[in-house]
Structures are given as structure tokens and as C-alpha cells.
Amino acid sequence: MTVRVGQGFDVHAFSDAPDRVLVLGGVVFEGERGLVGHSDADVVAHACADALLGAAGLGDIGQHFPDTDPQWAGADSIGLLTEVAGRVRAAGWEPGNVDCAVVCERPKLSPRRDAMQQRLTTAVGAPVTVKGNRAEGLGAIGRAEGIAAFAVAVVSR
Ligand code: MG
After folding, report:
1. Distance 68 CA to ligand 1 centre (A)
2. What is the Rg, in whole angstroms, of the alpha carbon atoms belonging to the chain?
3. Range of the domain at 68
4. Which pTM does this prediction carry?
5. Residue 123 belongs to domain with CATH number
6. What's the average model confidence in pLDDT over 49-62?
7. Do 48 and 100 contact (CB within 8 A), yes or no?
8. How far is the CA of 54 from the centre of ligand 1 (A)?
9. What spacing in Å lies between the alpha carbon of 97 and ligand 1's midpoint?
10. Which contiguous run of DSSP H or E holds residue 75?
11. Element (H or E) spanning 148, and its range?
């Protein structure tokens, strides 16, 4: 058996647009500021997708879903993640698991963690775990200017 690991990173700034909805791990956080992005800006789903693509040697999410392509404007990133998992399997790799660390001052993730994990796990077809971390006031994330996410994925064949 061949096992490979991949790493994904993403960051999105908070938006001033009142109509932007905050979506993290496919879960809507009502009443929270949304993030700037071409798609729904789901930074968690994007980091997970990049980790899977990296593990399978399939490049990155920008190559697969260019933000210059109007087809992906406002895209549901859980749908993109499902598509990524399909492309990983089509390349002969089976996702083992994905683990994602989300860094933000707000919102508080723990009340929605199970819902996020469920949506992401369904999309990938393998266990996806999510952990929330604060930046303790340090740097741009610490000033609550945006949300960052780091993910690792394992695939095997
Ligand atoms: Mg992104």
C-alpha cells in the first residue's frame, strides 16, 4: 500500500458587505460577518480540498475551480469538496482522513463543530475532523480581520 499526505492552507478576510453569509465547513453561522470570496468563501472546505489535492498530487483548488470562471461564482464549497474527493478517487487514491485546524477570534466553533464535521465527512466520504483555535490577539487573524484554516489529508492506494 502507498500512503501519501497533503497539506492545505487558506485564509479569507471578513467582508463589510451585509449580505455575505458566513459559511464554515458547510455550516451557516447566522448573525456573523461573512468572508470575502469568489465562492461562498468557506475557508475550512477550501483548506480540506487543497490538502486532498496535494496528497493525490493533483495540484490545488485554484487550478480545478479558477476564481476567474463565472461558473464558480458564489459556489457551494461543500459541492467543490465533494467534486475534489471524486477527482482524487478518479486518480486512484482513497482518502483516509482529513484534519483541519481553524484559526479565528470569532465565531466560537465548538457549538457547531459536530455539524461541520458531519458535512465535511459526508463530502469527502472519509472522516474529517475540525479544531478551533484563537490567535490570542496576535496578527491579522488576532485582530479579527479574517479566518485561516490549515488541513492535512492522508490518501492511499
Ligand atoms: Mg479559499
Report:
1. 13
2. 15
3. 3-156
4. 0.96
5. 3.30.1330.50
6. 97
7. yes
8. 15
9. 20
10. none
11. strand 146-156
Q: Tell me the average pLDDT across 48-70.
A: 94
All three cell numbers of 129? 475532523
Main-chain phi, psi angles of 103, to 5 degrees: -115, 115
Q: Classify residue 112 by its DSSP letter.
A: G
How many domains are contained in the chain?
1
Q: 66 CA to middle of ligand 1, Å?
A: 11
Say how many Å lie between the CA of residue 1 and the centre of ligand 1.
Answer: 32
| Residue 118 CA to ligand 1 centre (angstroms) | 20
CA of 70 to the centre of ligand 1 (A): 15
Q: Where does the pLDDT of residue 96 fall: very low under 50, low under 70, confident under 90, or very high at 90 and above?
A: very high
CB 139 within 8 A of CB 36: no
Using the mean position of ligand 1's atoms as its centre, give its distance from the Cα of residue 49 in Å.
Answer: 10
Position 69 scores a pLDDT of: 83
Provide the residue count of the chain: 157
The Å distance, Cα 77 to ligand 1 centre, comes to 9
How far is Cα 18 from Cα 36, in angstroms, rounded to an integer? 11
In the reported structure, the alpha carbon of residue 42 is separated from the centroid of ligand 1 by a whole-number distance in angstroms of 7
Q: For residues 157 and 142, give the distance between their C-alpha atoms in angstroms, rounded to a whole number.
A: 40
